[in-house]
């Protein structure tokens, strides 16, 4: 297993190549499938679509400290689409926030890894999320607080495209521009699927680029599985002044497992044992 010393994470823009990020993402996807199947519940599809983005944030971009989760100078991460907690838990464990063994307690009553992130139970979780539209508002508040405190820390927030149907997302977006929050970067996990089917059929959010531009944001569109593009977008966001940045990341629900990709039914359903074995083989595990 790839392990890094805690000191590795305390500076931004770390020297880590794309092949290493890809290898970490592959292991995270295995964790996601094992966790959800072990619990026989959870949300594997969206967890797998956002994996590459979150791995790049934690291993390349964000300044954080697994030995001191409340380190004042840390960058903050908010998982607004809290149902994809398996991706976050795997990454936190692999960074060293808690033992890997704890992943087996996902969605267990006695465990610290609840179905949605809980800031009171899990080291490294900045705020409890789960009610869609809540996290981006909290991220705006964090970014404003950091500005008032004159700290150069940044706030990163991941939202879902189904989540972008919530009115609170747009209220928060309006506030972020009003307060010139150039320390805020939001990433839209744009896999175009939600629990009931394609986003553009359930309640279209398009054209998303034009909408966030109209709200005053700096907008970047990328392939959310291309590590070079993810890194470049995050770097560009740091150069933007007096306005927040929205990264529209085109992704694939269930990314990495052929029979799960672009299938809405894997939004909130765990793989049974036979399909878990098949999926892990696709991800390169000997089972």
From TrEMBL:
Source domain of life is Bacteria
Cofactor(s) it depends on: thiamine diphosphate
InterPro entries, alphabetized: THDP-binding, Transketolase_CS, Transketolase_N
The keyword Hydrolase belongs to this UniProt entry's keyword annotation: no
Transketolase N-terminal domain location is: 33-284
Provide the alphabetized UniProt keywords: Metal-binding, Thiamine pyrophosphate, Transferase
The protein's GO terms of the molecular function aspect are: metal ion binding; transferase activity
Family statement drawn from the similarity comment of this UniProt entry: Belongs to the transketolase family.
What is the name of the protein in this document? Transketolase
Provenance organism: Desulfurobacterium atlanticum
């Amino acid at each position: 297993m790839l392990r890094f010393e805690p000191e590795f994470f305390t500076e931004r823009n770390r020297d880590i190549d794309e092949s290493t990020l890809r290898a970490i993402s592959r292991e995270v996807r295995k964790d996601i499938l094992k966790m959800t199947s072990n619990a026989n519940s959870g949300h594997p599809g969206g967890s797998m679509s956002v994996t590459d983005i979150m791995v790049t944030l934690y291993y390349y971009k964000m300044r954080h400290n697994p030995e001191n989760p409340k380190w004042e100078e840390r960058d903050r991460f908010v998982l607004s689409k809290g149902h994809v907690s398996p991706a976050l838990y795997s990454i936190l464990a692999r960074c060293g926030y808690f033992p890997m063994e704890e992943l087996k307690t996902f969605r267990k009553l006695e465990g610290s890894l609840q179905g949605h992130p809980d800031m009171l139970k899990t080291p490294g979780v900045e705020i409890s999320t789960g009610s869609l539209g809540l996290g981006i508002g909290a991220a705006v508040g964090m970014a404003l607080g950091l500005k008032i405190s004159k700290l150069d820390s940044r706030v990163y927030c991941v939202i879902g495209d189904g989540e972008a149907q919530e009115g609170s997302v747009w209220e928060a977006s309006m506030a972020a521009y009003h307060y010139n929050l150039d320390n805020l970067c939001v990433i839209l996990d744009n896999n175009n699927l939600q629990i009931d089917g394609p986003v553009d059929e359930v309640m279209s959010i398009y054209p998303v680029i034009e909408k966030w531009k109209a709200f005053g944001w700096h907008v970047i569109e990328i392939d959310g599985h291309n590590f070079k593009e993810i890194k470049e977008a995050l770097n560009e966001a740091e150069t933007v002044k007096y306005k927040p940045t929205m990264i529209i990341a085109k992704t694939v629900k269930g990314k990495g497992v052929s029979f799960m990709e672009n299938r809405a039914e894997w939004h909130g359903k765990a793989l049974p044992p036979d399909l878990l074995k098949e999926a892990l083989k696709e991800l390169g595990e000997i089972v």
